[in-house]
Amino acid sequence: MTKPLAMVAYGNILLGSQLVNRLVDLGYRVSSVVDLGTLATQAEKERPLLLVLDLSASQNGNPLDIIQGIRSAEITTHMPILAVTQVNDPSFHARVREAGATMVAVDSAIVAELPHLLEQVLSFE
Prior knowledge:
globular; alpha/beta; Rossmann fold; 5-stranded parallel β-sheet; single chain; 5 helices
């Protein structure tokens, strides 16, 4: 049986490598993206089970615009998106969810809490 694919888009290399390693440990295949300019195209092509997006990844695009683009494309509109941020501000988190993220998590706890967060983000309809 093929392992599920998770796509990780990150700007912070340490966080990105930690997320990739943790997802692999949890049984996922992982596709890494560092250029937001290619994220939507890669998501359409690879069709991952979920997308983990580090909101500090701002090279070649605004993460909130990228989320909206993924949500507006018919082929990726259903894709769960777990947005990761350094900002612990409820109003910012609300804007990220309004853009289309399924869930927003603060990066300081993401690696330790990843199994629980994945369970939640993948159970959303």
